[in-house]
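Field: COMPLEX_INPUT
Field: COMPONENT_COUNT = two
Field: RESIDUE_TOTAL = 548
Field: MODE = joint
Values follow.
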Amino acid sequence: MNKVLSESGRREKADQTFGILTGPTVGFAALLLIWQILALRISGFPGPGPTFDAAAELFSDPFHAGGPGDQGIGWYVLTSLISAVVGVLLAALVGIPAGFAFGRFALLDSICAPVIRILRPVSPLAWLPLGLLVFQAAQFATLWVIVICSVWPISVNTAHGVKGVPLDYLNVARVLRLSEWKVFRSILFPFVLPYLLSGIRLSVGTAWLVVIAVEMFAGESGLGFWLWDQWNKQHVAHVLIGIFVIGVTGFLLDACLLASARRYWHDEA
Amino acid sequence: MEKFIRIESVSHVFTRGKTQVEALRDINLSIRQGEFVSLIGHSGSGKSTLLNLVAGLTLPTGGVVLCGGREVDGPGPERAVVFQNHALLPWLTCFENVHLAVERVFGSREKKSQLQERTRAALALAGLSHAEHKLPREMTPGMRQAAGIARALATEPKVLLMDEPFSVLDGRTRVHLQDELLRIIATTGTTVVMATHDADEALILSDRIVMLSNGPGATLGRILDVNLERPRDRLALINHSRYLAHRATILRFLLGPQDPTQAKVAPASNLPLEDVNSH
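Field: COMPLEX_OUTPUT
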């Protein structure tokens, strides 16, 4: 508690002296400077200037549709986003009920927890060959990998929430003899929701990391594929732009999810 | 008067892994309808356990609890519980928390408007009409506890079971809420069993005070009939001889040695040897 207070206190102090935007401005200016120095030292490494020119051209028509291999970057971003979101939704479809079941039934938890503990640390890309074998198509194999790596945080977080439901709340339900459905709707679900949402936030973060990597490997589409394709064509400026786009998109995704998760946090009174 | 709650040779043993802890041993107690009984004892004296047994949240490992002539085999809304820490659901407003209980108990028989009316009435009784749209975190501890009591009473229970309901409150709020409670149950005639460790609280509220010896294996100590006229005026009672005598009895029980064998053995074993020899 004290640590949190002093941390936020320090932050407030920093904001007072610098203003809210000063920190980020200094940070990005430093990044640009380092970038420029690297560009001057390494041949073939484009500096900020040429990269911004390339970006301006690239983003002048982001949804350009000129047939295969001649598409705007917006389409690639959209493809990757859709893969990540659909993958996480499918994982939620499996992971949420599984999480509730693990949390509620200790026996099931004791059976599945050891298996999950082994499978969870497996690098998502290791699942790609199996996906290709089973689904025979890169697109579905990509989804498969995203689902696999997203399902762990969702189910584990949900189960954690279910296990943490205060005994008092359940006793209220017992005294009132609430139906199982009512217990779920009025007590279990509202209590677990923030845990569940933070699980989803974690898995969207992972899914975004993973989708880019998988598209580089198996890709016929998506931002990862585009980035690797640009590397093959030696458009290093575009590779740098790709990195920036991936970062900004990931940041925005996380910010949206954080904002929506905040609405459902319940403070114990 | 008829014995409404009957606790007959009840004992309870908790099993945690391989160890067994005997919380209560051979408890016999009868409570009349409309009576206010306090269970007083230190923490660990099993008063919460005894309360949970009457609530049906825990089933006794020995003996039987009867309520209204029927064996208690589980919890039910006719035996409402006010939890020590209010146990309001934090995502529901004050109104919704009470309504959840009202809806469950009367929902099958009454119309929506009647259910809302009941909820409002319960909140009004607890002095919470102004706060019905507040979430628990927006309320003071006193208001939250009042809402917990309103939720319990809104179902028109036969028995109100309260586990140290006032212990988290500051003095002024506590007195206010105790007076509210007395006023409410005077109109409803609800039987109340309250666990507490506060002698004054027990004396102001109760008809009888049941003293529980220290656990493990807590048994009933004395049962004190509080023959003080109602309504009880706190200020007038400060110098009331019977009040003071009762208070002394309770404190002597709580603070003094309880088990005669322990009382003799304990001090002797604590004495340094040379002290014993010098006499």
